Amino acid sequence: MSAPAAQHLDVTPRPSAIIVFVDIRGFSQWSREIESHESTLSLIQQFQYIIKKNFKWPYLKPLGDGAMLVKEITNHSESSIKSEIDQICKMAIKCEKEFHRLTQKLAREYGNPTSMDLGWGVTRGKVIKQVVGDTTDYLGHNINKASRLCDLARPKGLVIDRDDFIDEPAKYRTQLYQQVKILNKPYLHVPVWVSKEIYEEFQTREHQKETPEVHVAGVCIKETLSSLEILVAQRNAKRKLFPRKWEGCGGQLRYSEMFDAGVIRHYRSEMQIAVSVVSDVPPVVYSINTAQEPVIPGLRFLCKYVGGTAKSANHDEIKWVPLAEFESMSEEDFPPGLKSEAIQLIARYKERQPSS
What is the pLDDT of residues 282-293, one digit of tens each? Predict the structure, then answer.
């Protein structure tokens, strides 16, 4: 590469991170009512102190009556992400309790009730990290997205991007509900977890959307001159559902996402490989049935391996097995129905191949 071409390389760091925005609800009205610049400044300082003390994250950017927090992450395993969002919810509860005590104190001092609360927006993804001297800042569409989610947290409470945090957090003060929030471009419809106060806010019929959970999954094959091999992955022992079972790859379908695009996305993000969906082989219908949980319907597709080396933090082992070996494995080694569904898909594929 020539020297001039090298100068145009973009070497800006783009780490993965969790982004939290928090904002004081009712601040503008309160500041107008008391008409005291010193008191307003004091409230903001105490609010910032509460956030900083409870989160202890390395990056906190004060934004007047709000704040932006960023935590870079390298562990993207299912258990790690679940732990992160649970911790965020616990810290949010602590902040809310301390902020409530602060507003009660202010109400006594000024002789009038206050109606200030906190709203939160949480997302996860790549960010642009800018370092100039001793100053660090974060930019990018995920920062913007977290800010918009925070703006939707009204009258108060929590809005969490459900694409980035699939499992419902277990540590917040209210039950969290599934909704689809309407944002401006480029996000449009965003599936989210929301706290009870937000969920129960009035919505017009045009903005109400059901959010059933639908899954997609794949059975990935690779053909050689002498055999057909299937990619199987063993779920690790810490997985809540089907630990140590062998599977293909799959998960939730995103809002407004086509089935084949969902399968391709899951293989790319979970196993780091590229696949193509075999469109002329009809998928099979399956469902996930667990006690005291809603039934989750799904479609399982046949896929062909395109490229990459399969690896996953959520699996103990990933391997290619010849069809004969796959057929000899016990049904008990797989989640219910998966082995027979895979064999059915491969049989449909062979039926469509030209005879030699």
Answer: 999 999 887 767
